[in-house]
Amino acid sequence: MRLTLLIIILFVGSNCSLTQANKSQCYGTTAQGRIEHSVKLPAKGTNFVSYSELAGALGRTYVHADVAKIILAAYDSLALSHPNKAYKYAETGLKHGGKFKPHKTHQNGLSVDFMVPVTNPRGESVHLPTHAFNRLGYDIEFDNNSQYKNLSIDYPAMAAHLVALDKAAKQRGFKLTRVIFDPQLQPELFKTPLGAYLKQHIVFSTKRAWVRHDEHYHVDFAIPCKP
């Protein structure tokens, strides 16, 4: 009996230690950093998919554990509030962080790219196509009318996603550092019913980044890191 009890105590204790040991720890900045005990985002869920299962298999979809919780909580919220909307996430980072070509950031598990949600000519929510021939979606260019071929950026769906991310982060004691999205297209985002919330609670890029960021939006999460 005593031996059994001792085994149980040791087992529980070792599991607790393992859980604590596997807690994500980020270092440095998104532009010069690394991460320990990152987690891999699931390839798909009820209302979302990854931009590439192959890229996931190659280890390009790792994030800080708290970032993963925020992302998945936001998708769960959207599944209830916007059940007919389809979402797709893109590049995140490597398992141990560090340089992540061709990106200048994404180094410590706190940066995530999301493909813009789009609608087809019938107004249905569909996924932006991401494959080898368009560099997994990153070569797509939307015109000044937010159109790419027969697809249109779904700004209300995008706004709802950003609000869901912001609220999920704050519920866990964190926040969004910034959102990078083409400044020329931002006015359309702010025209949505959630535009006022976005302006008040989320910091957006005001200058065009080194790449346009029209087919995707980049989100940095504010989670404390060690130097």
Automatic annotation (TrEMBL):
Any one biological process term the GO annotation gives: proteolysis
Keywords attached to this entry: Hydrolase, Metal-binding, Metalloprotease, Periplasm, Protease, Signal, Zinc
A GO MF term: serine-type endopeptidase activity
Signal peptide from the UniProt entry: 1-21
One cellular-component annotation, GO: outer membrane-bounded periplasmic space
Alphabetized Pfam families for the sequence: Peptidase_M74 (PF03411)
InterPro entries attached to this UniProt entry: Peptidase_M74 (IPR005073), Zn_M74/Hedgehog-like (IPR009045)
Name of protein: Penicillin-insensitive murein endopeptidase
Source species taxonomy: Bacteria, Pseudomonadati, Pseudomonadota, Gammaproteobacteria, Cellvibrionales
